[in-house]
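Why does this matter for the project? Reviewers at the last site visit asked to see concrete outputs rather than summary tables. In response, this paragraph embeds two records directly. Each consists of the residue sequence and, immediately after it, the corresponding structure tokens. Nothing has been edited or filtered.
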Amino acid sequence: MHRRARRPTAHARREVVDHLGASGQTGIIDGTEIRVRRPAAGRKDRGKFISGKNEQNAVKSMVVTDAEGRLLFCGPAVPASCADITHARQLGLVELLAEGPGVEILADAGFQGLGAQTGGRVVTPPHRKFKRNPPDRYEEMYQ
């Protein structure tokens, strides 16, 4: 008997945040793209599947792991034209992290801005504004 895969619910997302907070572990969040066949000609939302990153037809899914790389959460697939930060907001992760336990989530530059919205719980690399001669403290912080 083939069982249908269940979509992750808001309850599952809350459990992941609570688990990371209770165990004191650091989480890692990232969006991953999966290539798909080009949608049929004439489909009105055909352009939504084209990723701005690699200009291919794809869907994107949000993934949360612990520091050891164990998968804790995998969000539903959305068209790849959606930015990582937008996808995180649509999943309600911003509210969960802002209101939930003290958790540290590491993220890449696609999530810049979430740190301010979640009370510093999402840590991203700093935005590089210095092209030449950055101050020493900035280089240390960036690394």
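We now turn to the second protein, recorded in exactly the same manner.
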Amino acid sequence: MPAARALAASLAGGPAPGDHDPGHAPGTPWAKRRFHEAWSETAAAAGITALHFHDLRGTAVTMLAEAGCTVPEIATITGHSQAHAQRILDRYLARTRTLAESAIAKLDEHRRNQPERTPTLGQGRYSTSLTL
């Protein structure tokens, strides 16, 4: 899995994989229970009491969506099916100002790239004809 630049830079300066947890062999997958224990111990040591590991997934999904990622791209990062990724978006995606501003910027850009149109009389409110 590729890492964002900030994460890669942070990891580059830290301990080698496995150095932080003597009970975990480098290059081997974490057992679910051991990961949960390590997460809980680390969160408690940092004074974090109201955050669960899965809360980070919702934050990541929101950040990826705000960055303009598609559902297939988000599903690739989270490891879910596209349908499940969409359900996660439906549940976790905060309707933020950033998303609203992005949507309006896309609309403005789309309109800038359209040929100029003038109304055509007698063909209804939304009818237009191309001005050549």
